[in-house]
Design goal:
about 280 residues; mainly alpha
């Protein structure tokens, strides 16, 4: 993505320069020039303008994709390292990597916000059907409920990881390490799926109760994450402030070595297709 952006930006700058030079060579009183001269100049200008539009659109598209792809890769790498890298998990549990703790707080808050939005959409879907209709038997409400439950599972996973850090912290037993208490499970996925067997009217009321409880409990969990993150202390060197981003930089360097520059345009197109729903 970065290489594609650099290549398109360089090509755009070159074409802009060529178009500027071409405009300066416009024959005086063009309409009085021979037909061949007029046609040649008009054709060259048209080609330059078409190239400028195409390249500008490409650069603009990549500029839209870059922050989306950045956030997506960062999130996926975070999830991967949590599951596979014991040193990263232990470092978080023993109050290292303040940047990663900050991202943990942002990540949790974003998942809470997303679930809150999905709960609102689910409520709207439930109010559009007969109050006596069973939620699971209505295609529209069942689909929204399934997607909401999936988002709820992502919130649950954050609390599961926080509690895992609490367990690791106790096993580490380092000085001042036992500051993190296990948090009650939010059980968002289970609460949402529990609405399946209810009527739409019952589900609306149960959903309101859950939403109110979720708001309070999620704020409490968020406060715990922030408080624990405030205890994180960085040592010397860039890698001590955070673990994830240095890993990403190392990964990007390896990818650059293996990337064929001639495939960057296709890579950009494939990336846009992958992220199409978010652009």
């Amino acid at each position: 993505m970065e290489l594609a952006y650099q290549r398109l930006s360089a090509a755009l700058a070159e074409v802009e320069s060529e178009a500027e030079v071409l405009q300066k060579t416009r024959p005086p009183f063009l309409f009085l020039q021979p037909k061949v001269t007029r046609s040649t100049f008009t054709s060259r200008m048209l080609n330059a303008e078409e190239s400028l539009v195409a390249l500008s659109n490409g650069v603009e598209k990549l500029e839209r994709l870059r922050p989306i792809l950045h956030a997506w890769v960062e999130d996926e790498l975070e999830t991967y390292l949590r599951a596979t890298h014991e040193g990263y998990v232990t470092g978080l549990a023993t109050h290292r990597f303040p940047e990663d703790w900050e991202r943990f707080g942002r990540r949790f808050a974003m998942r809470v916000q997303r679930l809150t939005e999905f709960l609102h959409s689910l409520r709207n879907a439930l109010t559009r059907v007969a109050s006596s209709a069973v939620v699971a038997e209505n295609a529209a409400t069942a689909d929204v409920l399934a997607r909401t439950a999936k988002v709820g599972a992502a919130v649950d996973a954050e609390v599961v990881f926080l509690n895992h850090l609490a367990d690791v912290q106790r096993r580490a037993r380092s000085l001042g390490s036992e500051s993190l208490e296990r948090q009650p499970a939010l059980s968002c996925e289970a609460h949402v799926y529990g609405l399946r067997t209810l009527s739409a009217g019952e589900a609306v009321r149960a959903l309101a109760d859950f939403a109110a409880m979720f708001q309070v409990q999620s704020q409490q969990v968020r406060g715990v994450i922030v408080s624990e993150g405030n205890l994180a202390v960085a040592g010397e060197g860039r890698s001590s402030r955070g673990f994830v981003l240095p890993q990403w930089e190392a990964l990007r360097k390896l990818v650059r070595l293996d990337l064929d520059p001639d495939t960057t345009e296709k890579l950009a197109a494939d990336t846009e297709k992958l992220l199409g729903g978010n652009v």
